[in-house]
Amino acid sequence: MKSPLMLRTIIGGIRTLRSRTKLMIPLAIVLTFIFIGFCLPLLISFDPRSWGKFPRNLPPSFEHPLGTTSVGQDVFWLLTYSIRGSLIVGFIGSIVGLLIGAVLGLVAGHKGGAVDRAVIFLTDVFLTLPFLPLLILITILIKGAANLYIVGLAIAFLTWAWPVRNIRSIILSLREREFINVAIFSGMGTAKIITTQYLPHVLPWMSASIVGRMITAIGYEVILAVFGLIPLDEATIGTMIYWALEYQALMRGLWWWFFPPIISVIVFCIALYFLSSQIIEHLDPRLRHLTTM
Amino acid sequence: MSVIRYIASRVLVYVATILIGVTIVFIIPRLTGTDPVVSILTKLTVYGEYYDPEVYEQMLNSLRELYGLKGSIMEQYVAFMRRLFIGDFGPSIIAFPTPAMDIVHDALPWTLGLLSMSLLISWILGNLVGGIAGYFSNSRWSSFLTVLMMSTYAIPYYITALLLVVLFTYLIPLFPLMGGAPIGVEPSLSMEYILDLVKHAFLPAMSIVLMFVGWWFISMRSMSIAVKSDDYVRYAELMNLPKRLIMWKYVVRNALLPQVTGLSIQLGLIFSGTLVSEVVFAYPGIGYILYQAVINNDFNLIMASTIYSIIAVATSVLIIDLIYPLVDPRIRYR
Asked: Are B146 and B218 in contact (CB under 8 A)?
């Protein structure tokens, strides 16, 4: 009698461990990137963005782990700065837009009626607007003053509509529940109901959404950089790709300049996507059908 | 009755989308405080090219009205709208003095053709495979496909397209990497010409399919997993109906409906992806025009292609939304 039970416990243990590793691997990769972006640059005393610091076109060696560029930058240290730059754009574009959308979705779902209709109407409009041409128009006009934060804000301004419908649908399903009625009849104000009653139920989805939205923001940063619309003396993944293309790095055999930014952005984005889907899976599997990007 | 209300609300969103989009385009230059007119004029004098005074005057006028700060904000808005209404964005700078409008007009069919073909392919492929994978969600190949599709979907659009370029220039130089049609050949309906068009569109289309097939797959898979556990499917299984019949007629068919709505929600993003892939493959659509315009600071052309993108996407979304009641009878009887 005892052994099958034990066997089952062991199998169950292995199962949880496996589902844990599914969460832990992407999480570890994402944390590694954050470490590379924000901690490693503290180790060096020079600015890896500046040109002509090192001999040009050196292949990877002990001294320069990823070689040097055609303008005399160390690829490895430039990459750390670039990851930081892309993370900044990603964080701001993701979080600010999500917060705007979350507030609108929460209020619309709770209030219903005319407020709800107005919010949904505006959301539909912003969902339909073609994102890239408008983003290009905004960044081209602020180009003189553009920095990574403003680019992030521009992305947030154009993507706030994506989470509204999802959050609203979560709220609509909660609204019929008893505890909301209790809160309303005990005289709680709208703001308090939203923050204390709804928010805890929406947070799992929001945390997955932050991660998912970062992929979009980082991807559009790359596109803007290729259009030459990010200040090109800044270091981001996008500007790094821009300069590598500009100097035809791959054509000239400088693969150590061309591939690191591309491989890092691919690995990072895939890790982010798996992390966001695993967050949903672990925190609230009922929300599995909702998108996070 | 409900159909009429549905159509009316969709048309209202359509009109509002275009109006708000155009208004944003109007406001942005005025908020950012840069004066494009000045920057364009300095750019022109730097090039030191000769322009016909009359055309120059005409361009100056269009610039002043499209971005200029003369008159009150309301007067500016009216002048701006009037220009949009007659479709006069002034001459383009990169192809001076061709009207910016004409360039966008030539580019639009390329974008719409590329977009609709690759959208259709990715939609059908993703939903078909996603539906089957959802029905057999416990099998090993289904979870393998899911991991694969999630990975391809997560890669940023530009990187997907760039990797295809690297792959097909260095490893397998099979397809033309630039343009949309052979140069110097008259367009015709001959087999040869069409084959050449397909050959030119193949790589850009493939990149767009790769960008978005994962999305349709993932959402279709989770949708059919949800439908699979519904009572009527269980009933069909208890009746011992053939598995194939259950999968197609009971599960996939019902899971498909939200995917049609998904089309209209995702279209704006897919349009952006199309523009990106046109830039990478130098495909002569709106995206490529926009890229050229940005590099050369051609404001009239940027403006014209942005406004046209807004109208094109909004119209396509409207069409999909109007088709939806035909697919989903529930809207008709609600």
From this structure: yes
Q: Which residues of A touch B29 (CB under 8 A)?
A: 141
**Nearest-angstrom CA–CA distance, A246 and A249:** 8
| φ, ψ dihedrals at A265, nearest 5° | -70, -35
Question: What topology is assigned to B100-297 in CATH?
Answer: MetI-like fold (1.10.3720)
Contacts (Cβ under 8 Å, ≥6 apart) of A155 = A89, A92, A93, A97, A135, A216, A217, A220, A221
The verdict on a CB contact (< 8 Å) between A270 and B157 is no
ipTM of predicted assembly, 2 dp: 0.84
Task: Give the tens place of pLDDT for each residue, B279-321.
Answer: 988 888 999 999 988 888 777 888 889 998 999 999 999 998 8
Assess contact for A167 and A102: CB atoms under 8 A.
yes
Are the Cβ atoms of A266 and B159 closer than 8 angstroms? Answer: yes
Residues with Cβ within 8 Å of residue A119, at least 6 apart in sequence: A104, A105, A107, A108, A164, A168
C-alpha gyration radius of chain B: 24
Measure CB to CB from residue A130 to each of B219, B268, B291 and give the nearest one. Answer: B268
Residues of A in contact with B276 (CB under 8 A): 132, 223
Which of B32, B170, B310 is the best mutation test for A, with the most CBs of A within 10 A? B32
Percent of chain B with pLDDT over 70: 82
Q: Average pLDDT, stretch A25-37?
A: 92
Domain ranges of chain B: 100-297
Token pair listed for A194: 């939203």
Q: Judge: A219–B159 Cβ closer than 8 Å, yes or no.
A: yes
Contacts of A121 in chain B (CB under 8 A): 12-13, 16
Higher pLDDT, B196 or B117: B117
Contact between chains at A274 and B150 (C-beta distance less than 8 A): yes
| CA distance to partner chain A, nearest, from residue B123 (Å) | 17
Among A115-119, A289-293, B245-249, the least confident range: A289-293
